[in-house]
Amino acid sequence: MHYITAGESHGPQLTGIIEGIPAGLTIDIEKINQALASRQGGYGRGNRQKIEHDQVEIVGGLRHGVTLGSPLALIVKNRDHAHWSEIMNPTSPATPANTVRRVEHPRPGHADLVGGMKYRHRDLRNVLERSSARETAMRVAIGNICEQLLAALDIQIIGYVQQVGPVKIDTEPSQALTVPQIQKQVAANDLRILNQDKVTLIHDLIDRTKREGDTLGGVIRVVVENVPAGLGSYISWDTKLDAKLAGAVMGVNAIKGVSFGDGFKDAASLGSQVMDEINYDSTKGFSRLTNHLGGFEGGMTNGMPIIINAAMKPIPTLYKPLQTVDVNTKEPLKANVERSDTTAIVPASIVVENVVAIELAKAITDAFESSNIGRLKDEINRYRQELVEY
Amino acid sequence: MHYITAGESHGPQLTGIIEGIPAGLTIDIEKINQALASRQGGYGRGNRQKIEHDQVEIVGGLRHGVTLGSPLALIVKNRDHAHWSEIMNPTSPATPANTVRRVEHPRPGHADLVGGMKYRHRDLRNVLERSSARETAMRVAIGNICEQLLAALDIQIIGYVQQVGPVKIDTEPSQALTVPQIQKQVAANDLRILNQDKVTLIHDLIDRTKREGDTLGGVIRVVVENVPAGLGSYISWDTKLDAKLAGAVMGVNAIKGVSFGDGFKDAASLGSQVMDEINYDSTKGFSRLTNHLGGFEGGMTNGMPIIINAAMKPIPTLYKPLQTVDVNTKEPLKANVERSDTTAIVPASIVVENVVAIELAKAITDAFESSNIGRLKDEINRYRQELVEY
Amino acid sequence: MHYITAGESHGPQLTGIIEGIPAGLTIDIEKINQALASRQGGYGRGNRQKIEHDQVEIVGGLRHGVTLGSPLALIVKNRDHAHWSEIMNPTSPATPANTVRRVEHPRPGHADLVGGMKYRHRDLRNVLERSSARETAMRVAIGNICEQLLAALDIQIIGYVQQVGPVKIDTEPSQALTVPQIQKQVAANDLRILNQDKVTLIHDLIDRTKREGDTLGGVIRVVVENVPAGLGSYISWDTKLDAKLAGAVMGVNAIKGVSFGDGFKDAASLGSQVMDEINYDSTKGFSRLTNHLGGFEGGMTNGMPIIINAAMKPIPTLYKPLQTVDVNTKEPLKANVERSDTTAIVPASIVVENVVAIELAKAITDAFESSNIGRLKDEINRYRQELVEY
Amino acid sequence: MHYITAGESHGPQLTGIIEGIPAGLTIDIEKINQALASRQGGYGRGNRQKIEHDQVEIVGGLRHGVTLGSPLALIVKNRDHAHWSEIMNPTSPATPANTVRRVEHPRPGHADLVGGMKYRHRDLRNVLERSSARETAMRVAIGNICEQLLAALDIQIIGYVQQVGPVKIDTEPSQALTVPQIQKQVAANDLRILNQDKVTLIHDLIDRTKREGDTLGGVIRVVVENVPAGLGSYISWDTKLDAKLAGAVMGVNAIKGVSFGDGFKDAASLGSQVMDEINYDSTKGFSRLTNHLGGFEGGMTNGMPIIINAAMKPIPTLYKPLQTVDVNTKEPLKANVERSDTTAIVPASIVVENVVAIELAKAITDAFESSNIGRLKDEINRYRQELVEY
After folding, report:
1. Any idea which positions bind NADP(+) (chains A, B, C, D) (predicted)?
2. Residue B247: exposed, middle, or buried by beta-carbon count in 10 A (0-12, 13-18, 19+)?
3. How many Å is the Cα radius of gyration of chain A?
4. Which residue(s) pair with B309 in the sheet?
């Protein structure tokens, strides 16, 4: 399984192709659109999200709502393109009239400057249109298809917010809750957090930060339940599934750290505190008494819930602009201010959830014969039963 | 560029092949052996390391000490194999005499149990012989060749220890030191730490932990200087170099978290605190006033030092054994105790340094025409000059 | 560089994404459309081609006609979809009304039967809609972009017809002609052949074959000039560029054989007859006196024109239908007859030309730093000069 | 599954690593050595083969003769290295004494000249030591392991000689014979041909060619039986298994053409002549009445025997040397004569057989869950039964 996306933030559309989804899977388009809406929501967003109301179209690989086994082609139109149809026109030649809104003052923390140097762009809009997090809408659409695949195999996944700026959501360890319980709790507020008592505090933090023209990051957690043991392998560095997941999560815009289970806390603990002792039950087979390691041993899933944490840096586009340099005159000045959010931690939690779903769907379809969803289900069930009987 | 390793912990040898190292690079074998020796050192190691004195042999791709451009084949013999020549014999059939020392009590925190289930092994030695960190010796050998390649391009790298168990090495931010300065300071103690004042404290911690039959993890930092801006790209999720580095670092045994620059601390900060403002100097071109982001923007190197942090969990093999279950009788009991270290944070810092070196060498040789080191040097120099003149 | 396509033959559109085209390349959309029109032409085609008049749209990666360096997204609408909007509707659920025109009699020589078995389809339309050569329209669109990239590097390419059914185009060896000369000659007839004298003969053959309800294959030749020496490598089996080209050409629908230079004729010759002796000229450097090997030695381009031959089987959809079996009743009967061509050798010559262009563009952009077309041109020119001075 | 090889022709050894062979497979080392011996045999070989008597050692991934699931490391020592231990010494610095036997007169038809230009070698021995067909010994060793895997799944394979120089082995179509029958017949002579009556004729041809200082190529055929239908896919150009096989076969030294089934003959035939009509049998399921297409439809195996043809050019190293140019003086002169064979068509047939085995083993292990050979067997059997019941 592999996928690719294309499209600029204010271009006509985002386009995605994913190959390797089994034939015979019924796709619920509305679920994809709900995921896209979730990505556009959350407290602390700017105005762009009010413009877009993303809707996916599937124009390849699907017939009568069921996958064909051929590559799926997805489209998400950019409604905002109407206002940029000349400036971001793919084919009409450049003229003075359509090359306005040039970006020549690279924003610190963004791809602008290095992108310009690497690709020899002088109008840094040519960089930021692609490096923008707008692209993650397509990753969510593709990820939701993968979530539907995982659901067909009884695997549940949720991404939510564990920390906003300095405020940690102090609550009982989330792994004590099932994924459906987490889903329900985080749906009860616009911060996607487990602890309702902290909502007002964080709203206030975001409001204050916004007034000051500043931005916030946070920490995201993803939990996945009922993943079969034995995905990934210890045999080579690049067959470890936790390593692949780490790469995919770090590949989400603004993510600067990723960890499994207790993560960096493990580093400060004693061995006797962090190992998950092994238990056996004749009907369920082997399990672990705890889950400090977040569902991975030796780069393989061990049957416990997967727990991934991701650190998101604050959005670098500030209304309180930072020092930069004009790429032409080389004069120091203040960075351009593009329309921006105060914090994108809520949508980022959706995006991280979805890239995790993609990697897990990939791990499963790569490991098992996955031409058809029915055959795949049978195989996975037999494999699960075999593990119980080990 | 790509590489693969093979070999079991007590088998005859580790074998590695790396393809994509340019022709014409002079390889200093002694440097590789020094790196292998460093991986075997450090305070807190067990007895195995006194048995092995790793020496690399190169049996392909090298002639008269110079690379040919063809794949390099490396060998590191396992001296300990002499004691295991029957038990780990590749070809002689299994007999009662050579199938002793079976492992049937999987150790929590290791690959043992899941590996047995996945590959249908009943003697879990068949798992642990490969999942053992012994394999990282070959990654270090290959990594040192990559470091020699990077050095030819004036890129310096160092991995060292930032935290042992709960003890953080409080010192001025390491990025204020040059890589040669860091190399010198961390070579002055057997903990590979910057702050000599903490050596006794940490020695005591390790000694006490050892007496209690427990183990320690820690945090590793890698710093890389003089990397050209523009390696990696924002254009697709899987072209981001920080994502690839995160995957490679997470692929090191016992690593549970990875971050760039300020990492998880960024998540708690305001945007105005963590962005690295842009500066310009007519002779050096663009730079950043700070380096909170650890040398990456938009998944690309930005010319600032790369700073990577990795969290290592404590070694799961305890002398104070953990609960497990016999895979045959299903009786609960205590895990096997294999020969082990109290902490492997020092060697892990070498390993992480080396896998970072590999990924950077890969990023450069994949991006630039790299058949010959002389041509590659010329290209990189022209590219660097172009960036200064942007 | 890599690409993927999606879309069914009677679905709404073909979609393609290609990543790795350098920034700064001006794309001539009309050239792409001309290539698409060429793929739809040629003597011996059926009626489908009169329905489609393919036009490409680029909806990502292009701005004002110039590449951005980000992935290019291409669309070619299926005009015929209007007649199939219910039967091939991606999302509306299956009903008796929209599941007509089922295919349950697999056609020999097509993917129908095996595709049904592999993906568990009972309506084999779910197979043939994707396995249809309709998909090659997108490969041509992507290939033409690659041809425009090659043209910017002064590399010319042409694919044409060497044999139709049993009729070989006996003419002087094509490698004696330059690519522009070949382009001019083959454009003078609707068979894309070099020898005008054979046009009537082949027209008659096609007409007669059509009357008999039968079909014809043929042999295609692709010639590429001015490719720098040293693309590909002998160092590993999977770095050989001729091997990659062979895979790409064999990946074109209906191609059953591929060879380089004299190909299978080489197998019957003496070594002294087929080796291309080496010559030297102080201004041009090294060259070969002949080109029996088709521009490759040791899996590398050697600077001589690349010559590739491809054998195309006759189109398997006959009006004189073949024996098959109903997949439900298991009764023997005659295969369905879908709308078809008598020969598709002319369009296939376009498709093969284009997949060769893609692989060569990939070989160049993978080998050289290719973020920007201007930088790439400079590098290639320096490299070419270096080879002359070797 | 993937593999890589390393090692120079006169270096200490060939090294290979293959990852992805299932755990639990018993490896017969003697079978590998027999395959290595076959590669060294055949009428028309030179003296080098009398020096080498290749023996494989497995130094990783194998324990007590059974695969562990971890990467297998293989070694084949070069016995001839004893005579080259200084000239081809990996590590001792270059001196006048050990840099004799330089190659500065590139041989037409070899990688010598282009390899020198690409990698900036002035002693072309640095090229030919790796581009030599010596490397194929390791591909045979790895291929034989794959053949043992295929045999465990009841898949048989044979490669043999169909044509030597201009002499075709006129016999009944080989697909009428089973693989074991072919194996028996071709083992009865030193030309690996089916028709014993042609042995003397071809011996004479080879002897005469040798006296004249010339060389011969030929055509190889590989037949594989009992491959499950549905390997590979029509869904994308790079998922077609025939395309991958074509690449692997073209990646064998001196191969200039590859085809399936009737191959280039198909191009001259009518559609009604070359399509394989579909048949059904209630116990065996679907089959084809003929096999013109060589076991592939739509890039997928169709359950019929796979038939691959490969055209080998004559060995370019002639005792009747060809014109070349000294790379230093640029003077025209005659090419160096290295020790050589008159024809290598027999060993090449072994090599092509083995690379086909590798690709098929890869196709199967990539498609099915292949951690353990027992589980894989069960899956394949269930899959085969499902296809019968389609």
Report:
1. 39, 45
2. buried
3. 22
4. B221, B259
| Closest listed residue to residue A216, CA positions, set A130, A62, A100, A345 | A345
Tokens of A136: 């993650």
Judge whether B376 and B368 are in contact, CB under 8 Å: yes
What is the C-alpha to C-alpha distance for residues D87 and D71, in angstroms, rounded to an integer? Answer: 32
Closest CB from A8, A92, A93 relative to C60: A8
Which H or E element spans position D243? helix D241-250
Mean per-residue pLDDT of chain C: 94
| Contact criterion met (CB < 8 Å) for C109 and D293 | yes
Please give the structure tokens belonging to residue B229: 């801006």
Give the pair of three-digit tokens for residue A59: 């124009």
The distance of C97 to chain A (nearest Cα, Å) reads 12
DSSP labels, B323-364 = EEE-TTT--EEEPP--S--SB-HHHHHHHHHHHHHHHHHHHH
C204 contact partners, CB below 8 Å, separation of at least 6: none
User: At D324, which helix (H) or strand (E)?
Assistant: strand D323-325
Q: Number of CB pairs < 8 Å for B and D?
A: 185
Nearest CA in chain C to B379: C379
The answer to whether the pTM exceeds 0.95 is yes
Q: Locate B123 and state its tokens.
A: 């003697």
Q: Quote the CA–CA distance of B281 and B291 in Å, as a whole number.
A: 17
B355 neighbors B143 (Cβ within 8 angstroms): yes
Instruction: Give backbone dihedrals phi and psi of B93, rounded to 5 degrees, phi first.
Output: -60, 155
pLDDT digits (tens, 9 = 90+) for C183-236: 999 999 999 999 999 999 999 999 999 999 899 999 999 999 999 999 999 999
Q: What's the half-sphere exposure (Cβ side, CA atoms, 13 Å) at A121?
A: 31
Check if the beta carbon of residue B158 is closer than 8 Å to that of residue B353.
yes
Contacts of B73 in chain D (CB under 8 A): 6-7, 13, 15
DSSP C275: -
Helix/strand/coil for C182: helix
B130 is in an annotated binding site: yes
Candidate from C59, C120, C375 with C-beta closest to A372: C120
Residue A52 has a pLDDT of 61
**Per-position DSSP letters for D59-78, written without gaps between them:** EESEETTEE-SSPEEEEEE-
Residue D222 neighbours by CB distance under 10 Å: 26
Do the Cβ atoms of B267 and A218 come within 8 Å? Answer: yes
The answer to whether B142 touches B3, Cβ cutoff 8 Å, is yes
CA distance B302 to B288: 9
Q: Supply B132's token pair.
A: 């053992």
The SS3 of residue B52 is coil
Annotated binding site of D for FMN: 130-132, 253-254, 298, 313-317, 339
Residue D211, C-beta contacts closer than 8 angstroms, at least 6 positions apart: none
Residue in chain A nearest B343 by alpha carbon: A271
Query: Would you say B326 and B122 are in contact if contact means Cβ atoms under 8 Å apart?
Result: no
Written as six digits, the tokens of A270 are: 């004693």
**Rounded distance, CA D160 to CA A194, Å?**
68
For residues B310-320, one letter each, b for 16 or more C-beta atoms within 10 angstroms of the residue's C-beta and e for the rest, the string is bbbbbbbbbee
| pLDDT 10s digits, A344-371 | 999 999 999 999 999 999 999 999 999 9
- The stretches in chain A having pLDDT less than 50 are none
Q: Where are the alpha helices (DSSP H) in chain C?
A: 29-40, 48-51, 112-119, 125-131, 136-152, 179-186, 199-211, 241-250, 264-267, 271-274, 345-367, 373-388
CB contacts, 8 Å: A377 with chain D: none
Find the closest chain C residue to A371 by CA distance: C119
